[in-house]
Specification:
By secondary structure, this protein is of the alpha/beta class. Strand 11 (284-286), helix 9 (291-294) and strand 12 form a beta-alpha-beta unit. It folds into 4 domains: 5-155, Rossmann fold (3-Layer(aba) Sandwich); 172-337, Rossmann fold; 365-529 and 708-719, Glycogen Phosphorylase B (Rossmann fold), CATH 3.40.50; 535-702, Glycogen Phosphorylase B (Rossmann fold), CATH 3.40.50.
Length: 725
Amino acid sequence: MTATVHDVAILSDFRYPGGTSASIAAEVRAQARAGLTTVLVHVRSPHLKKERPFHPLITGLIRDGSAYLAAEGEEVAAKLLVVRQPRIFTEDPASPPPVRAGRAVMVLNQAPGDAGDPARYYDFAEVRKRVEGLFGAGIEWAPISPQVRAEVLRAEPGAVLTGADWHEIIDGSQWWSDHSKLGSVPVIGRHGRPDPVKWPRTRAELLQAYPDAPDIRVRVLGGGELAVERLGRRPANWEIIEFGTCEPAEFLRGIDFFVYFHDPDLIEAFGRTIMEAMAAGVPVIVGEHFRPLFADAALYTTPEGVVPLVRELYADRERYRSICLRGREFIESRYGYPSHLIRLADRGVRPGAPPQPALTAPRPVETGTVLLVSDNGVGLGHLSRLMAIGRRLPGGVPSVVATQSHGAMVAHREGFLTEYIPSRSVLNLPRQAWSELLRSRLEHLIDLHRPAVVAVDSVPHDGIVAAARSRPGATWVWVRRPMWRRDTGAEWIERRAAFHHILEPGEFAAAADEGPTVADRGGVHTVRPITYLDAAELAEPEAARAVLELEPGHPAALLQLGAGNINDISSPVARIARRLRDAGFQVVLAESAIATEPMPPVDGAHLVRVYPISRYLRGFDLVVSAAGYNSFHELIAFGIPAVFVPNRETALDDQVSRARFAAAAGAALIVEDPDGDDLDRVLARAVRADVRESLSRRCAEVALGNGATDAADWLAAFVHARTGT
């Protein structure tokens, strides 16, 4: 009888109470979600002297079938063996674990020592000799962080380590909570297993980081009794919760700032609790030595700087919120589940593909191409988002655009190899016939270009789902814009299983999103809002005005109310143009490159048809725009004073909520009823220079940046994983 070959075997002591078990649990969850099988091989660690049960997270995985626990002495076979916690091998195990694997990785999730003793916890050379004797000299040695890497090399300068760290991962969707509603006083908190070295050494620094002050509360989950012992008293404003009596995610919902300072001798391997706090939307305040791990997403200071920083941020709610969002986005992009699947794929472990239909025989994936598939749409939003990603793919990663949009020629002019797929409306076909055509056309393009990745910015039509099933050799990614209208699109969400991954462009108005994608964030990779251009690519005001033939010395306004393909946009245009002309503005009408009907002439207005119009936004003093995803985020990102006139006739896009949020944030104005008095009232404010200056300043404060490069790098990682480049 042939033994089952699991995708991944994880060997460790599953009784560890802290980060080691939490890290293992996260990787098992990521593997199970991707359809990979995991077997757990338990080896008792010699330094865990007391009898204790498996960590609850591990038992939960075994109970729900996410992982299989091998019996003691059971022979195990796996494609990849992952060994965690080198201290297990400070002594010979009672019996060698009978594990056969194609490849093996030792994850160095703890430094050999600390600042005072580089071998306090284990002798690296001794552990390496023992591990290689058990699992072979080909095992990889993967530090969990730059700190651990540095300490291993300090102890053993000749150690051969993996080029990339085997960093921690987390599912941010399981941790996030809204921290925008703050109480009467700020709440500082921290959580973690009890350990004296995880606290500042001196009483002075301890009280600086966790103050005894009536206008600040301190909450501690785990280890609080050690701090009290060090202080010799318990401050009245401190709340201490026993380790293990409250789930960390629940605890983090009850604090406003996560503050973590420890003994200077401690070499913190990673800081999983920091990552959890950021994923939960809690601003993190830590020491500068954590910067290599958390970049600009954390706040760095000394214990002495904690209280001033807390008070400063607590008084600036908008900055506080932006830091919450920045931390969450960073964690999801850097340490989300997909990053783990990519490193598994680098070692030959990939999700299994569904069986192919008997009559199909697609050519194997041989190229590193990314096929960008866009829906028809009424504007250029779907296509522009994909082109924004495509033009930022790293060198050596080619792309092909396949679009149902009339804007195929736009993509061609922008330098993309472009394939046109006529939409159902163009061909006037019955739904079933068009679905078959779409499936057939996509299959042909995949066989022709042999892409490693197919990125689809579209709802998953029947033809797309059928093509994904028949051509599973590529990695299929749904580029799914958020902010859908309430009670719409549930049938599309149910089809997410057709894709290997979901990429969600960021949304400035995410807090106002009540659509169905909000409840479907599990395993979704998010980036910042995607715009076609970066701010540095915009023409300077004088150059933009020259291109658009605008007179110098007079303010100019741009009207871009959409493609004109959903509803009649001509009626409010004339009123808006007249009101702006009366205020002394030159008026430019932007006609979409794919408008199916020409825009009727408007007295005194100059018509332009250029792509991308965003390149010339700095030539305008004011823009009156629909609130579609692309134009909305461009105006916010580039600090252009804007009046949004949301389109209420869209099938999925919730332009009304998006525009209302921007107005509530002070970043734009909104015309709720363009046919009523609301339009004149709002425009009367918009033409004032002080109002426009205020809007620009506000945009500069809250803009989230461009996520197109992050999205491109994320897709490129799948290409490299599949092609081995």
